[in-house]
Amino acid sequence: MNILIIHQAYYPEMSGTARRTKELAESFVKNNHFVTVLTSTPREYRSFPDYKFKSFEILNGVFVYRVNTLFEIKRNVLFRMLSYFSFFVQSLFIAIKLSNKADIIISIAPLSSGLIGAVCQKITKKHHHFDVPDILPDLGISSGMIKNKLVIYILYKLEKWVYKHSNSISAITHGQIENIHNKGVSRKKISYIPDWIDDAFFKTNLELYKLEVLKSLDYPDKKIISFVGNIGALQNPEIFLKTMVLLAKDKLNKFLFLFIGDGIMLPNLKEKTKKLNLKNVTFIGRVKREYIPAYMYYSDILVANYLPNEYLDICIPGKLFEYAISKRPIIMGARGEAKNLITKYNLGLAVTPSNVNEFTNAIIQISSGSYKFNPKTNKFTNDFSLKKIVRLYDYILQKVK
Predict the structure, then answer these.
(1) Confidence band (pLDDT; 50, 70, 90) for 174?
(2) pLDDT tens-digit readout, 273-315
(3) Structural domains in the chain?
(4) I want to staple 71 with a disulfide (CB 3.0 to 4.6 A). Which of 31, 83, 222, 303 is the partner?
(5) CA 245 to CA 279: how far, in whole Å?
(6) What is each CA distance from 136 to 46, 112, 289, 334, 378, in whole angstroms?
(7) Cβ within 8 Å of residue 32, ≥6 positions away
């Protein structure tokens, strides 16, 4: 089958949806499908260091076409909207041309990708599947980035138009399915395709880079707390600085916090760390994805957080899946779906979102040994394996056939 995938981010970008797109595309190739990805040039601050990309290249059997990024996706709402709009305009003609040869078009949110897929569906009459790991504009409103009522109104109209011109839709949580259904979409049109984990990738690269990463972590007698991945507004990462202020009072000075990754909040965090004169916070920055398993392996605790928000209650961050297979205790500020996942598989402790005191107490509880950590890692790996989740896409592909 000839599959066209449309998403604004792709390897060497390291965002969760970029990873989702890459692993999905390569899994289709392994199942003997012909796969083309239409994407944009990668953002430097979100990409693997030193990677030289091309406007057209074949990566692991996937044909990748890139359009130039005219505007960076930054915290500024105007630039973010311009980035999405420019991707839509630049990609549309190419997408129509590529979709004429495709059997199915799969667009992966945000709305800019979904709009391209929906327009192609209108013109070429090909099956359009809209994959929704993040629901927009709900996500932008939750982060506080989108406040203008007119903009919100227009985005909701565009969202419904994309749903209407999608033959099928998938979401990564059951709460998101309810959200989409409540916007007038039939349940028959929506399927559940959650995030997944590539256990083989974790095991292989842990062994390959374990010693190399260990040499870079010269922190004897420290309890390492790590945040790994995108450092964005939704994570409210400042609460980790406040947590480390409280933990700095520990007489043994045994806690060290590592920020591993990059994102729009990183400059602000570095500035505040300097102002607070925090000696127990270190910024590792971007590292090769192959190093991530080893960084998690050498961490004593892995942390994540969401803003306290009703929409975010129906979301699960992609990093939680990789955290889970590291067999390290997780502390996450979360309610709803993310909290339920942590509880179901005994992955660690879910605390009130952005609550500094609860984060501090949970860290002390785990580091002191009073919390008995017994994760159901094997069950988690089985339930969310890459092979198992990708099979859910087979049902959609069979319908197209």
Answers:
(1) very high
(2) 999 999 999 999 989 889 999 999 999 999 999 999 999 999 9
(3) 2-196+385-400 (3.40.50.2000), 199-383 (3.40.50.2000)
(4) 83
(5) 10
(6) 21, 10, 27, 20, 33
(7) none
Residue 16 pLDDT more than 60?
yes
CA distances from residue 383 to 69, 195, 368, 391 in whole angstroms, order as listed: 37, 11, 31, 12
Q: What is the helix (H) or strand (E) element at residue 312, kind and residue range?
A: none
- Scanning 301-355, the segments in alpha helix (DSSP H) are 319-325, 336-344
pTM: 0.92
Polymer length of the chain: 401
- The helix or strand, by DSSP H or E, that contains position 210, with its residue range, turns out to be helix 199-216
φ, ψ at 193 (rounded to 5°): -130, 90
- The more confidently predicted of residues 182 and 12 is 182
- Cα distance between residue 153 and residue 62, in whole Å: 37
Tokens of 6: 């449309």
Burial 177-195 (b: 16+ CB within 10 A, else e): bebbeeeebeeebbbebbb
> Is-cis flag, bond preceding 42, omega within 30?
no
Q: How far is CA 87 from CA 211, 292, 396, in A?
A: 41, 30, 27
Strand ranges, E, within 133-222: 168-171, 190-192
